[in-house]
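Structure first, sequence second, as always.
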């Protein structure tokens, strides 16, 4: 367990989005948890991966590559561009596929029944591959629920689990409240 607490304002999202959320805004400045192996250790621990994978330079390089690929895929699809995987723009999909090439799913049979196990030729690709694989699972589940916070100054992403699928903010207490306060200020200023 790392001694450094997780400084990020939004945690607990699915692995792919949690990886994207290792970059966030604080007081108008972009913060990045993954500037070194200490930050990687924090992220691995936050996602229960610290016992399986080392927070070393090679793993950090691969995780950063996955984060860049996922950012291009998620923001490209959310920005109204071609969805990842369409023939119109394979760039982001190819980048995610390049990460996925470093692992595979092995079917297993356990006492509890059928299962799966991820396998990697090089274990330093493990966390990056798991995040890319999780993105595919989110796409298969509900691609329209993968969202970027609607606040113009926020760079965080979330998976909308609200019943009616209308969540707009990474956090109602933070970004949602700022937007409401801004609208209130504009109304009272005009009055």
């Amino acid at each position: 367990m790392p001694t450094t607490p997780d400084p990020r304002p939004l945690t607990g999202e699915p692995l792919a989005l949690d990886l994207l959320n290792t970059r966030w805004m604080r007081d108008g400045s972009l913060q990045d948890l993954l500037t070194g192996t200490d930050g990687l250790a924090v992220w691995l621990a936050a996602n229960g991966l610290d016992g399986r994978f080392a927070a070393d330079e090679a793993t950090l390089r691969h995780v950063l590559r996955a984060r860049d690929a996922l950012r291009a895929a998620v923001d490209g699809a959310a920005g109204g561009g071609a969805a990842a995987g369409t023939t119109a723009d394979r760039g982001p999909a190819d980048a995610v596929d390049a990460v996925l090439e470093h692992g595979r799913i092995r079917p297993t049979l356990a006492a509890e029944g059928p299962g799966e196990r991820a396998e990697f030729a090089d274990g330093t690709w493990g966390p990056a591959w798991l995040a890319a694989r999780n993105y595919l699972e989110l796409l298969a589940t509900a691609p329209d629920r993968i969202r970027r916070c609607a606040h113009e100054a926020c760079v965080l992403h979330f998976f909308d689990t609200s019943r009616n699928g209308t969540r707009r903010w990474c956090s109602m207490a933070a970004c949602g409240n700022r937007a409401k306060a801004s609208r209130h200020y504009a109304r009272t200023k005009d009055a």
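Margin note: The helical segments are 15-20, 37-46, 57-78, 91-100, 126-141, 172-190.
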